[in-house]
Each structure stands twice: as C-alpha cells, then as structure tokens.
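MODEL INPUT / OUTPUT PAIR
PAIR INDEX: 1
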Amino acid sequence: MVKNGEFFLIKDMKQRGMTINQISNELGRDRKTIRKWLKESEAKIYKRKPSSRCILDPFKTYIRQRMQEGCLNAIVLLDEIKEQGYSGGITTLRLFMNPIRPTVVSKATERFETPPGKQSPSRLGNIPG
C-alpha cells in the first residue's frame, strides 16, 4: 500500500521526466506498483472493512452466563451451544473464552515432602504388622 505522500511523490517524479525504473529504484518499490499508482487519478483513502457478524454472536450472552456460574470447560460449553444450533468449532469458542476466564490464583494441589517411612501403610494402621 502506497501512502498519500508517496502517491504525490510518484506523480511528481514522473512529471519531472523520471522513468518507472528510476522511480522504483529511488523509492524502493516494485515497478508494477509504481505503474499501478501512475494509472490512478487520485490517492485512495484506506478504509477498514466493516466487521462482519461472528458465528458465535447469538451465543455470547449464554456463554458469559455459564462462565459466571463456574463452567469454564470449553468442550462442555461447545456441546451445550451445539444443541442450541451453533455450527462453528471449538477454536472460535476458546478464543472468545480466553480473555473472560478468571486467572488462577493458586495451584490446585501443593506438593509436600515427608521423611522416608512416615506415610507407610504399616504406620497408618491399615496393615497389621
């Protein structure tokens, strides 16, 4: 994409008598790009495409509600929304869920060490000995 300033520079260089090869070498652009922009009568303004509707849009409120209830498993939610008519895949669902997921504060289990024989079955009384 050529910027507006570059567009006018290309036009000016051509009016001063420079060839397409000279302009492309000077600006570091491909000859085909220079040729294309010389054919244009005015600089084009870049417009972002309007965002299209996501396949997940009709289910987002339901997913948020279920996540607030504590269901953070994407596979479970995928099964639930597929029953409601969702035709997309799990990747789209996970990409939507990731920013909403609560961060884990601590590990689910903590590791601790005991001296050898401290937790043996004979000491716990499970095996007569």
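PAIR INDEX: 2
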Amino acid sequence: MRASGKPVLAYATAYTDGGYRLAVNASEVWVNPLGGTIFMGPGGNQLYYKGLIDKLGVNAHVYRVGRYKSFVEPYTRANQSEDAKAASTALYGTLFSQWREAIAKARPRHRSHSS
C-alpha cells in the first residue's frame, strides 16, 4: 500500500478490534458520522455447566493431570479456578499488548492517551 505512494483510504460505519487493526495501515481512516468503534479486546465468555449437570443428575467423570489444565472446568466447576484465571489473564494481556503495539507502529502519530 504505502510502497506504491498511492493513498489508501479506509471507511467503515463501525470498526471492531480486527477491522481497526487492518484499517490503521491505510493512509487515512474514516468512520461514518453516525458510526463508531467497538473494541472488545481478546477473551470472551466461558459458560460453566456444573450447576446444570447437578440439577440434571448427570455424573461427569473427568480425568485431569496438571495444574493449568482448565479445558474441563466448565463441566466440573461453577466458575473459573484461580489458576485458569491467571493463565487467561497472562494470555489475553499479551494478545492485547500485541494489538496495541501493532496500532502504534502503523499510526505512530495517533497514539492513544490512555494506558
């Protein structure tokens, strides 16, 4: 894009995390006056089924080895364990830092004022 010397314009009604990361590489980033940005960050929600499993009378037999093996927690717990929370926080913190660094690298003059 920039190597050709031709301007590249990005325009959207709304930018999400991935769309904005792509758009910042354009010469100009535009947004519809009635639009905006929706940044959710990495992560998401995890549903836990232990209460439902107990209500239904289901026996779940889970074999787990290791401290940071949280894949089965939705079936054995009603919430996230402290070990799983620590691992998720580390992972998503790193992903968010990489996202912010990519934005700052692509648009160094337009840094965010918040940390």
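PAIR 2 NOTE: The mean pLDDT is 87.
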